Amino acid sequence: MISYCPKCGKPVADDATFCPECGAPLKASQPAQPAQPGYSKPKEDVGQKPDNNLILAIITTVVCCMPLGVWAIVLASKVDNLWNSGQYAQARENADKAKKISIIGIVAGGVFSVVYLILTFGIYGAAIFADLY
After folding, report:
1. Same domain as 55, residue 35
2. For a disulfide at 22, which of 8, 71, 94, 125, Cβ 3.0-4.6 Å?
3. pLDDT tens string for the chain (133 positions)?
4. Which of these, 37, 34, 27, 39, lies nearest to 11 by C-alpha position?
């Protein structure tokens, strides 16, 4: 017989004392009913909605690295819908990924710009130097 946690509705082992998902104490004498499909923890238990980092993703796209910026925009645009549908962990994961990818894009764009400038001025300087002698 499968038991379910009375708090979060996740399946638990019959001999479990606490739910491995949410940590709620379990009553061994009375198995709980499974939760409704799509059930998630109440908003009180999950904290505030994470920042979707959309502005950072847009800046990354426009200024630094378009491929990574577009990927970050796609992830950031899903955060609000996921949060509102009760998928809090997925919303936080998308927000964190969007921020991480945006930062990687900004760093990559900066490194590329510095290397480009060094090579451009190095070649230009070498050409000017060669003309002088």
Report:
1. no
2. 8
3. 567 777 777 788 877 788 888 878 876 544 445 555 555 555 556 678 899 999 999 999 998 889 999 999 999 999 999 999 988 999 999 999 999 999 999 999 999 999 999 999 888 877 777 776 6
4. 34
Q: Do 51 and 35 lie in a common domain?
A: no
With contact defined as beta carbons under 8 Å apart, do 5 and 21 qualify? yes
Distance between CA atoms of residues 16 and 6, nearest Å: 13
C-alpha distance across the termini of the chain, in Å: 90
Number of domains, the chain: 2
Distance CA 94, CA 75 (A): 5
Strands 11-12 and 3-4: antiparallel
Domain of 70 in residue numbering reads as 47-132
How many whole angstroms separate alpha carbon 19 and alpha carbon 123? 65
Whole-number Å distance between alpha carbons of 34 and 44: 21
